[in-house]
Amino acid sequence: MSEPISAELLTSDEPVAFVGYADSRPGREQDLRERMLALGDPSRAEPGVLAYEAFVNPARPGSVAFYELYRDGHAVREHLEQPYMRRFFEDSASLLVGDLEIHVLHPLRAQASLTEHQKEEHRG
């Protein structure tokens, strides 16, 4: 993975988002698309998953891009423990070239709140 999912992130009370790519092995492009698409409905049905979408990027053929938004880090942990996610990760070596490319995103509003809190501490 590009950016490991830390234990700290998995216990966060703030919203968590991921963007990234899954790069398919040659000849497995359609299999990867189907598997990524099949993860969508059950993932979106989880109470802590706010968004879970897969995309194609014409500039990056053979890859599936994804965007995921979770209520908090606890929801991420619950998602990763689902049987369908475990099966995907077990099968990933046959589908993917390397690891998933994952980038963790933190909402600006959470960062802005933290900055305001830090400013208040310095004033006090």
What can you see in these coordinates?
The protein has 124 residues and is of the alpha+beta class. It has a single domain (7-123), classed as Alpha-Beta Plaits. It is built from 5 helices and 4 strands. The chain has a 4-stranded antiparallel β-sheet with strand order 2-3-1-4, covered by helices on one side. A hairpin with a 7-residue loop joins strand 2 (49-55) and strand 3 (63-70). Helix 2 runs antiparallel to helix 4. The longest helix has 16 residues, at 29-44. Residues 16-104 form the ABM domain.
Please give a quick description of this structure.
By secondary structure, this protein is α+β, with helices and mostly antiparallel strands.
Q: Topology, please?
A:
Elements: H1 7-10, E1 16-23, H2 29-44, E2 49-55, E3 63-70, H3 73-80, H4 83-95, E4 101-105, H5 108-123
Antiparallel strand pairs: 1-3, 1-4, 2-3
